[in-house]
Records
---
Amino acid sequence: MSLLVVGSVAFDAIQTPFHEAERVLGGAATYFAVAASFFTPVNLVGVVGDDFTEKDAAIFRGRRIDTRGLERAPGKTFFWAGRYSADFVDRTTLATELNVFANFNPRLPEAYRTTPYIFLANIDPTLQRSVLQQVRRPPKLVALDTMNYWIERTPEELRETLKHVHILMINDSETRQLSSEHNLLRAAAKIFQMGPRTLVIKRGEFGALLVHETSVFAIPGFPLEEVQDPTGAGDCFAGGFMGYLAGVGRVNQQTLRRAMVYGSVMGSFTCERFGPDRLRALTRRKINARARNFSKLTQFKL
Amino acid sequence: MSLLVVGSVAFDAIQTPFHEAERVLGGAATYFAVAASFFTPVNLVGVVGDDFTEKDAAIFRGRRIDTRGLERAPGKTFFWAGRYSADFVDRTTLATELNVFANFNPRLPEAYRTTPYIFLANIDPTLQRSVLQQVRRPPKLVALDTMNYWIERTPEELRETLKHVHILMINDSETRQLSSEHNLLRAAAKIFQMGPRTLVIKRGEFGALLVHETSVFAIPGFPLEEVQDPTGAGDCFAGGFMGYLAGVGRVNQQTLRRAMVYGSVMGSFTCERFGPDRLRALTRRKINARARNFSKLTQFKL
């Protein structure tokens, strides 16, 4: 089944201990869409400026990504600059220039309005809700990402939007902040009162946790020999997760667990090269091979 | 098969957000021995002062723990005082008084000298080596814990001791420090040059990683609803891990993976109550039930 993603398309300036670049294609919706497209057709909604070239757009071509929802606006594309510490543990934001993203008002092309699977990447919760209002048919699954900025600045808007969301996908500290609860299992119980019935907690190199109704599933991070750039790993996780679910078209305990594995696989791949470069060279065969390796990495018999 | 542990027996003063106490039985060898005794007979070597009462020793009684190697020396027992932050993320050491532990010179009773499984808890690497010199028959398996103090202060003694060790069990930061390598897989390859063929990296609430020859196994932490006191969790992990291996008497890929699970289970239990209280009330039946829950928590089929 098809999958809608609404979020940022950006240019990133990235400094890592090994490499730096001034203008790398980035943004949550970019990483998400490319990762998800290995599993299912993707409908992309975002905005770029007039500095966004055909060459930049090439990453979406030859994939099952519909870019009719990628609006072009006069001005510059959203720009983010960041620097990683020597061990990749800390990331410092050096610049954030919203540019055309400041006036982003997501509009779904007619053909997108019955997409059954929806991912609302991290943007203003009011805009996230406006996406759901444009849908013509109750979606099968809505997942949402957010961040500390919205949890602090627009808590009521976020709460209102969460009422319409099945799966919340955030990191540890966002989970704790949103729930005012340090313990992650208790935090999940509080978040379930807000609307979502499923919580996916992304923990970077430490893996991820799925709390779904009364069941908990935990996976470690996939240990990598080579980490070049963690930018976009969380969005690739979300893309693999939602892409897998939309691809199989069933949401249950078993498919959710597999989705966690594919999410983790996609997150691990993108770290191996700079920007989205690893995704460009990826195939479904390599993804499946790593999923099998993930299985070998984690499975045991008592 | 029986299991020898050499390490500290201590009194701890612990402050957590929920509770504090001035004199709680602690020490690596205490936690290790009690955790391991659920799986196999344990021979304990350590030293206590004349303030160590029959009541304190009660934790070892009624278990398969031989305390003939627990020396009594004039003076006070090793004392450690620490405080946890509100979220248990940080631990501050408030006091360390070595007392009788300052002159600890481990002596193995005759009956211990053919113990096939050996765990050298975190003490001076020269003393760890002296334990191995007292053994009459090549041990089946030697595992060792250490810490940043010895990695920094006595690197050559530690290197010499590591030549005689099969399994090194340390945390992330110790792994990085010992190998001068941030990436954990590359760190493992460097550590394998030093002697051990197996590395167990303990990552607290984030689980643990086993690197054994060319194979990697990763487990997440067991998510707990209630964390009262993480003191001794790493030692309980080691106790469950080594206790399980000694209990089955076979070291291979499959038993090592199960040992990781039992280690994680024992580490998780002790966090649920203050000091070693949770261990006192534990049964093998409860341990097995949690291991099955651990399996449910982590298993998936592709």
Note: The mean pLDDT of chain B is 96.
---
Amino acid sequence: MAKIITLGEIMLRLSTPGFERFTQASTFRVHYGGGEANVAASLAGFGHHAIFLSSLPDHEIGTAALKTLREAGIDTSFVDRSGERLGLYYLETGASMRPSTVIYDRARSAISEAPVDAFDFDLIFKDADWFHWSGITPALSRSAAHLVKVACEKAKAHGVTISVDLNYRTKLWTPDQAKAVMTPLMSYVDVMIGNEEDAERVLGFKPPKTDVLQGQLDLDGYKTMFQALKETFGFSYVASSLRTSYSATHNGWKALLYDGNHFYESKTYDINPIIDRVGAGDAFASGLIHGLITATPAFAIEFGAAAGALKHTIPGDFNQVSVKDVLSLVEGNQSGRVQR
Amino acid sequence: MAKIITLGEIMLRLSTPGFERFTQASTFRVHYGGGEANVAASLAGFGHHAIFLSSLPDHEIGTAALKTLREAGIDTSFVDRSGERLGLYYLETGASMRPSTVIYDRARSAISEAPVDAFDFDLIFKDADWFHWSGITPALSRSAAHLVKVACEKAKAHGVTISVDLNYRTKLWTPDQAKAVMTPLMSYVDVMIGNEEDAERVLGFKPPKTDVLQGQLDLDGYKTMFQALKETFGFSYVASSLRTSYSATHNGWKALLYDGNHFYESKTYDINPIIDRVGAGDAFASGLIHGLITATPAFAIEFGAAAGALKHTIPGDFNQVSVKDVLSLVEGNQSGRVQR
Amino acid sequence: MAKIITLGEIMLRLSTPGFERFTQASTFRVHYGGGEANVAASLAGFGHHAIFLSSLPDHEIGTAALKTLREAGIDTSFVDRSGERLGLYYLETGASMRPSTVIYDRARSAISEAPVDAFDFDLIFKDADWFHWSGITPALSRSAAHLVKVACEKAKAHGVTISVDLNYRTKLWTPDQAKAVMTPLMSYVDVMIGNEEDAERVLGFKPPKTDVLQGQLDLDGYKTMFQALKETFGFSYVASSLRTSYSATHNGWKALLYDGNHFYESKTYDINPIIDRVGAGDAFASGLIHGLITATPAFAIEFGAAAGALKHTIPGDFNQVSVKDVLSLVEGNQSGRVQR
Amino acid sequence: MAKIITLGEIMLRLSTPGFERFTQASTFRVHYGGGEANVAASLAGFGHHAIFLSSLPDHEIGTAALKTLREAGIDTSFVDRSGERLGLYYLETGASMRPSTVIYDRARSAISEAPVDAFDFDLIFKDADWFHWSGITPALSRSAAHLVKVACEKAKAHGVTISVDLNYRTKLWTPDQAKAVMTPLMSYVDVMIGNEEDAERVLGFKPPKTDVLQGQLDLDGYKTMFQALKETFGFSYVASSLRTSYSATHNGWKALLYDGNHFYESKTYDINPIIDRVGAGDAFASGLIHGLITATPAFAIEFGAAAGALKHTIPGDFNQVSVKDVLSLVEGNQSGRVQR
Amino acid sequence: MAKIITLGEIMLRLSTPGFERFTQASTFRVHYGGGEANVAASLAGFGHHAIFLSSLPDHEIGTAALKTLREAGIDTSFVDRSGERLGLYYLETGASMRPSTVIYDRARSAISEAPVDAFDFDLIFKDADWFHWSGITPALSRSAAHLVKVACEKAKAHGVTISVDLNYRTKLWTPDQAKAVMTPLMSYVDVMIGNEEDAERVLGFKPPKTDVLQGQLDLDGYKTMFQALKETFGFSYVASSLRTSYSATHNGWKALLYDGNHFYESKTYDINPIIDRVGAGDAFASGLIHGLITATPAFAIEFGAAAGALKHTIPGDFNQVSVKDVLSLVEGNQSGRVQR
Amino acid sequence: MAKIITLGEIMLRLSTPGFERFTQASTFRVHYGGGEANVAASLAGFGHHAIFLSSLPDHEIGTAALKTLREAGIDTSFVDRSGERLGLYYLETGASMRPSTVIYDRARSAISEAPVDAFDFDLIFKDADWFHWSGITPALSRSAAHLVKVACEKAKAHGVTISVDLNYRTKLWTPDQAKAVMTPLMSYVDVMIGNEEDAERVLGFKPPKTDVLQGQLDLDGYKTMFQALKETFGFSYVASSLRTSYSATHNGWKALLYDGNHFYESKTYDINPIIDRVGAGDAFASGLIHGLITATPAFAIEFGAAAGALKHTIPGDFNQVSVKDVLSLVEGNQSGRVQR
């Protein structure tokens, strides 16, 4: 059991039930989630001591988010309670050729305005093993970008391994803005996760020519890109999940990892139907981290890919799976036979 | 933005949730819909001034139907409030090899008994661009058939383009009855929409030998039939959607259009899973009308086919889509990637 | 209309809605079911006089189970009301590569403790045509195994045909225990139903080498096994359903029957999506029994396979289908076109 | 356990959830009920052999109604399956000063068109103890009124006790029509149930001056009216429930019975909140019948009043209570303490 | 039918179902509402031509709000589509001694940033009869306060009657801020609505000494205050609803009106249970406006009080009642008897 | 913030929605709760370090219970994972004169079979302030009674204050059994909580003659009984909540406390409607403990009574309230005015 810290935003998610469009819904399903919170939830579910750092407004909706974190087994001792609002997003779940759509309403959320001194980083990173963050957090605001930088410095000072998920979001910033903020932060990173689109927009790397809509993957292109990323930034590991989008409810899914020596490629999963694909990338990152901490890169990429695949079958942002659930899939049990 | 009138019945639809059979349901999902109302809803959603003509009983269930029309942006100024009952139908949604089933309880609905003078057709058709009706309305009753005839005469007198969707319904009348009533009405029609089954039963045209259950389409047969229909009745356009039924939740879908010169064939959509296929034909008709009014036949058939395809992914009778939604699919975005 | 008796346990089933995991559910869907009750429900639905024998605690949850049986048209006159508790099981419905899981909480249920004299077997089997039980009941407890033995004796004494579904359950007993109890009971059986796994664990027969996960069926192996079973135990018929598990929501499905002369193989069904696969084996057994009683073995295997296929599309344990529904599928209507 | 027959209509009831108005509802709660079916359900729940006579269309909605009857333990052997439609009604549940409202859509239902020879009355009434009907059935149609008359004749010929609930419905007929049809039918009746409004409109008796809205009951007036009714028609018993309407969710409730010698007055119940008052009168009639069959008039009026009071706390038309439940209330347990 | 304009904010309202606390909810009920939108909805329901002026973001949640307005019959032709977000609020419905609570998240909503030239006031107020706004709108932002001022000027220039509901909101501004902004706006107002708390905080008037928690109303004090308000600002009418809060689910309710000559006092309503009290003040204002437009002050105060009382029984912000519904209550039908 | 330990059983609770009877429910609402878990949840909600000791089976339903504990902020570090099953109970919520009913199915639950060495009591009670248990736990089994005894010994050895809630349960044991087990355990107890019924059945004390159904409380009788209890067992405090049951949805509620010097009587609450009264006694105990730890007996009895009153308005077993919520009610805010 490792001590793992993640830092970021948790939002209220409001999704329409039964494939209804936004304009049809008379109820919204309530979940709470966000990239780094999702990673903390997965890692707590795998048995680690997962600490999530964020800021939540001191009202009952903020408390509801906090309770969801606690329910998942996350250590919320260091969550700051301040700020005016909880960021939120609306999710309409697509089907077949109708895509899912997301509407963000997250500007000026508590974490985007949280001061650095809201977190006692020396206490937090003491004896910690891992720190994970994503490119979403520095995109929220200048102060959030600064918070990430300070956290990275402190983590490094405590000898903590750092992973990042680039997670480029068009609605939060431009590629130029992203590059300006993210490039210097890469110097702290040991494990870099990002798909071809992220790598291009955030770090300016030309991606492989893969047409993700058609499913033909240029694996050599990925390998070349991963090598270049590793060389440029000195990452220990470069990883990516790869999604082939056949429709809103049918995807292919696999993952790649490069450790400087070997280029690991996971099994491919054919996911049909997809119940909820939000958080699949976070589930992959969590599985990869778990695998790297507890076993080998070869295991880590399979564990991460399987964890990410399972997330597609589970409602909500959090990946509600155990190590046992993931191992069962890693070991080949894809048949879905009833366990009784 | 065109002024478009549709005339017909809107029913209460009671459907079972969660793939339950009728005998299992402890709740029914409530929707309101009907062929011509569905077309009006789609066209209002595309930005047109859509007027729906019908009659609704002057009680709260009638008012609920009216509010649903208004919510969709339909102009309900000319809806008559009279009659004893709102027609209704029960819908059990099938899955895999279990078909969806419909039980009608629509006899003696308000519109089937509405008098001609309930509608001020001269006011209604003044400056109008298009009038759409379907073969369901004259099948309801003699008075409804008469109403359609008068409406067609008035529309023609005002120079309004007229489209029909043949929409043969076994439970409402026999082929002989349909032929007797529908054939003379064809003289008013500019744009005729109907699949091979409709054409045979309503107009007596021998359809192509296509086995719709197997998916092999005899396109030459359709072309021949469309030419014959056009020549016989003088239609400007003949169009049809084509459905290949693999199962209750998996269909193929495309559409054809003939304008006397060219024979247009849309892209084929593979729809899996189907969320709700009721109203797909109406969605196609609406898209076709929108395309013919605003652009070219080549655009119209693609726009209609895509609109119809999207309807399969949306609960309820109404196609809750915007022009932007349909264009996105026309332009090839079938991958269902999350829009964020 | 035949008089048919089944004997066994009916449980409360608590399932999670909307593909939620157990740890997410804030409501459970309530159904009542169990192998032999499911068979009685199907047969009542086919128009037979179906009597279910069981014991239910004399409280309102027991009464709720009873009302569900009555609703299905089952004759509950002989249900004993005693015991402390209704057995129950929790069901989490899987999706794609995530399997469904079952947690049993059925120990010390009313039927597992019911005394033999709770049932007036001479009255019950008088003029009866068929008696069906499954391997689950003797696995519940020693007293339940004894109850089955007495019932078989009485049924035989009244000249009633007896069928069994082996239904091996790992969580209830070991193969050795099963063999010790079940082997002597086989002497009463006329129609034996069991898949390759059941035959091996319960009766010690080496199954065909078929890899059910991959879908290649060794039909010759089945034939050989069926012949051996028939010869060893003197069964009139040996039958099995065959499931190919592609995923939790996508299965292949067919059935086999051997009558000593011919080896019958049903059509194969591709079931996608699966709505609820619990009770499919019971639905097959019911269809087979109906077919054998009313028609020929050739018809019986097709009717049974189609009945079992349809069950996959219906929520709950009971197969809510009529003879007409099944015949429609037997006759080839797999296209799922709306019936209107 | 007595053999009791009731005859009438069972309808689909569609009610809005959560105090929504008709125009707000996106789902309807599904129940099946109707005066005489409700009485049969109560009496079956009290342990009697209750037979319900009606006609249901031979489609799945008709079957759903049938299954609800069976679930309640009613003998449905004699239910006719014919006709075009199941009558239905919409129910909006009021609260505080907003009244509940009902919209009927029951014209031309199966039972209103059922022929007399659909029922083998000699078989049905053989060894029967009681026949109950209400004034709703003859109000449905001429043929239904004739059916009631024939049933009464047959019941009398078999020596069966007959009870009626006058149940005047403004929306079905006028007082004059009611009087013309109902007065001759009174000659068959032994037990007459009807409130002051019914007695006035159906039988032309001047009611007591009680202002039911204010709650002051003129008991002497009732006694006088009951005596006059008894003398005029030769009833053995005259009974009535009395409701004081404070609001849609708060009522007072009691009942009166006259047997020619004594005038019995039940306890008064203060019911707040009311969960569902539909069927309370039927629950009262059922309790009264049970009491008269099994005990004394003094017991019967208390049992009937308590049964009716309990119905107000139970969703749906049927009174889901046991003899034990009712006795507990009769014996004074009104405190609602948790039973654990 | 009058032409009536209202201007303000419409928000998404997210409420917990079944009396759950915020921290328990796994779904939120979705409604859209806000003071001035609620007034427009009521007036449209009473048959007036009600125009609502606001600004909604050009995304699907904004469109959902728009559709709700259209469904209610409101003319949305002049709704501006711009801005970043739809304001929202969370509502937890209390019970007994647990109060309902509201959490606002409405800062920087579209209407708070809408420019004056988004509305063509000359076109809007042409031939208009009435303009209604509330103290919430100028409290949103400086630009919103300016918008209200311009609208008042334009309305006055077109001879339109202006009403205001003071609606003081602690969470939006301080009494000093309110006074500074609102006092000059009073010069445009003809009909002033506000309770004693509003009058004190917004206009600085010392309220009557009434203890609203105890229910003893100092009517003379109200009269004195109303007279002073009228004299100071030259209002034609001063009105107020009066609420006595016994608990979250039990209130008393009445209303007062002063026209310079008479002091009108409505009936008192005892509302128990309350289903949803949000929007009751808006419902009162709407009823008052309807009454003043169509009849006399004496009628108006009763119609307004009854409309407001009914709102307490209806879920959501909008008062889903017709003139007929309100008249029935005005005329004394408080008994809640079922209408059938 | 005190360190407080509670020990007992947590069960799955399955309750019917919408006042449905058990036999009507097609879904059950899922909660997890039990006396001592409820106390831990309340105390965690008040900001204390609350540790719950129990045993949960190592399957997903056990994990679901665990997650609910964590969500409430309870420290679950010492929860044992072993045993076969989670105890459960069925709850039907009554209304008006229909009582709520409970059906237990808790025999042989994990905690009833947990060995003493599953808990490291020395570690658990180190620096602890308070230990709370109830009479339910020793009633479960001999081993559970032994576990409680050992826990009390260990707590005493660590100088921890011990409170008990007698909580007599008829369905678990007889008064004689209770007396035999509970009397010796009283020697460890500092704070004894129990109503008059508990005191009589568990400790053999003659209760005051109060008729709890009628609401007249014999306070002098309580005082005398409390004094006798204190003298006999040497309790520091004796406390009781007092409930007056008017109906299932309307109760009076208050509380009493005796500390050897003063006899404290809280305010009386009139609770109408009751949303969920399960756990109100536990909520009272929690409030009392909080009050005694942080303030005075006079404060404690008011805080406990208010906490218990609020529980009646909240669904589920846990009292979802903060110190602020309770203080607001203690300070007199019973009016339920919306907080906005």
Note: The CA atoms of residues 329 and 335 of chain F lie 9 Å apart.
